[in-house]
Amino acid sequence: MSASSHYHLETTLESDRQRTGDIYRKLAPIYDVIMKDVDYEDWTDYIHSLISYHHPHATDLLELACGTGTMALLLEQYDDYRITATDASSEMIQIARDKGNRSGSSITWCVRDMCRLRMEHSFDVIYMVFDSLNYLHKREEVLALFNRVQKHLKQDGRFIVDFTTPAYSPKIAPLLNEKQKVDQRYTYNRISKYDREKQIHINHFMIEKREPDTGVIVDRFEEFHTQRIWTFTEMKALVQESGLNMLAAYEDFDFTDATDNSDRITMILQHV
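Above: the chain sequence. Below: its structure as tokens.
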């Protein structure tokens, strides 16, 4: 019996949008540790700068795929915004809500699938970061997202969304391979691979949970996080097909115009 057969498989199918949240069901308790190297403060400053430049009077914000809520909580500190934050994973939203309760946050937290978004009101700015767009593998899924976003943007609203490209994955994949002890309960092993031909990037997590006092393993499970790595040309075509208007596309965390060689691209899309 192979080592991986000892694990309970937690995976998501490209064609099954209802299971999008499942890939974070087991990973949620250690997500913040896995993301420890992300400079959330700089990233939040960048999003705030984009909002200030492209929609300076924005107040009502909606975050899609918010994870454990770190960016929403940081963005709230600017005191300029009313924020609603959503994620498909109820486990991630619960962690975000707990973090918000501890800090006295007034953010509204909701479990929502970004491709089937239903909210009660519209927003000045909708944003989605950390390459969450790459979790959409099919053009129909991307178009569904753009459609739902358009229906929830106020007139002249903005959608800020980023994605990583084929210029980035070959460089970052080998750097993501790691095995780490999180605390007395969790240890994880991540194997990251990029398939250039299929433009698919897979992060394979194998996680062990132990009883804190004895160190006895009480659970083993794995998750496969599979991303479609879109080219800039492909994404521009989808934006055009959606009917949204691309106001700008920047590379990395700057205001430099993106190109086909950019690693990460942040698009500013406008409701029309």
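DSSP finds seven helices and twelve strands in the chain.
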